[in-house]
Specification:
The chain is an alpha+beta fold. Helices cover 30% and strands 28% of the residues.
Length: 159
Amino acid sequence: VPNFSLIDQQRQNVALADFSRKVVVVNFVYTRCALPQFCLRMSNNFGALQKRFTRELSRDLVLLTITFDPERDTPEALASYAARWQANSAGWRFLTGSTTEIRRVCAMFGQEAFPDEGLMNHSLHTAVIGRNGVLVANIEGNQFTPEQLGDLVAATLRQ
């Protein structure tokens, strides 16, 4: 996976390359999403991963939630969203950046989003990147359970 650099909810620069030799799981949300089966489900999946992999989080595993609405999802908005999920900021980072860079990162994973009647119409992608920086899986949609995602992460951690 090509390197990218964004900023997190604490206004710290974060590059994918910072996590070499770690498993990285990436998902995409926007904090104003009102439909529970979309962004909230994606965040819930990461919440379940955070609980399941408490020991591995930050040391061997990093979760990156990237907004596709950088105009509204400022670091402060992402910090508030992270607090709602009781995210461990050492292992679960919420990222934003310039519109150009966000579009580039979204395109790398096939993530699409566009404004629609005051909200965002968007696809759903969750990607698992192995310790060697190679894409293990790019799961489209939301037809998987947190347990299934966790099993994939566990298998990737063992590799």
